[in-house]
Amino acid sequence: MKQKDKRRVELAAVQGAYLIPTLAVMHISDGPRKDYWEKRLGPMFRHCTEKMAKAYEMGLYLGFGTDCAAGDFCYDNGIEFRFRRENCGMKDLDILLQCTRNNAVIAGIEDRVGMIRKGMSADLILVDGKPDLDIRCMYHRPKLVMKRGKIVRRM
């Protein structure tokens, strides 16, 4: 077994070790410096998406993060959802589980959050679509945001 492949297997075998990749921070928007950023970030983005796709194919337990600031373009346009689907070949339901159940497991709070079920505390969003069947509905702002059962924002 090659050393590189051995390291992949070791990460998968370590109990309590999780991979929480993020691609959204490498989003390159149109603008006067687009070529500059493509040259700087493009190779890293392609490398990261390739490795994320491999980790996904291997069945590694993935979490979901963005490293974007609140109100950033990444949130308004669902960039992390888009990149995972379009650049890493992840299935819609798997992406949805990564940002809900998997993150709760990784944080050690799956007994309280991460699923919609009686007895669970959940912050919920209402989107125009069914993200388990078509994650592209997460590319847009939610129609409604609820925190601890109370509406905190309507869009």
Specify the CATH class: Alpha Beta
Uncertain segments: none
The overall average pLDDT, rounded, is 85
Q: How much strand content do the residues show?
A: 5-15%
Helical amount: 40-55%
Provide the CATH architecture.
Answer: Alpha-Beta Barrel
Q: What is the spatial order of strands in the main beta sheet?
A: 1-2-3
- Label the overall shape: globular
Please count the beta strands (DSSP E, at least 2 residues each).
3
Q: Mind describing the biggest β-sheet? A: 3 strands, antiparallel
The value of Rg in angstroms is 17 Å
Total helices: the number is: 5
String of helices and strands: HHHHHEEE
Q: Terminal Cα separation, in Å? A: 53 Å
Structural class by secondary-structure content:
mainly alpha
Corresponding CATH superfamily: Metal-dependent hydrolases
